[in-house]
Design brief:
137 residues, Double Stranded RNA Binding Domain, 4 helices, two-stranded antiparallel ribbon, 5 strands, alpha+beta
Length: 137
């Protein structure tokens, strides 16, 4: 069971794992051992609440396929178990991320004092630059 929040969780049978050979350096061992993990999670067929499904499907993420399947590849660690845990943690963070609703930003006007300070600094800077002119004797 993958716990997302207090009332949202995903059962293990909804997540598909497959062991593959890791890429990159590692000597002879990397050619023999399948320590990397491919995690596949079908959003549409999952038991997630509709709110999470819609937000996940609207994501613009390279890990999300057109069919609505999240594919995460974990190959950071040398053991399959640690890579499996890392992939699950990334999936948890991805789902938690869409659960957070952004606060609506309301545009505000600068205060009169800040506008005045800005204009004063501009005038002061202009006077400094005016003094840099050619000196007439």
């Amino acid at each position: 069971m993958l716990e997302i929040s207090a009332n949202v969780s995903i059962s293990d049978n909804e997540i598909e794992f497959s062991a593959i050979r890791a890429q990159g350096s590692g000597g002879q061992n990397v050619n023999k051992v399948s320590s990397a993990i491919h995690l596949r999670f079908d959003i549409k067929a999952s038991s997630l609440p509709e709110f999470y499904k819609q937000r996940l499907l609207r994501l613009r993420d390279h890990r999300l396929t057109k069919e609505g399947v999240i594919v995460i590849k974990a190959q950071q660690y040398r053991t399959q178990e640690k890579n499996r845990e890392a992939a699950l943690e990334r999936l948890r963070e991805m789902i938690k991320g869409v659960g957070v609703v952004q606060k609506v930003r309301r545009a505000t006007k600068p205060t009169r004092g800040s506008q005045q300070r800005r204009m004063d600094s501009k005038v002061k800077r202009g006077k400094t630059k005016a003094l840099r002119g050619r000196v007439d004797e």
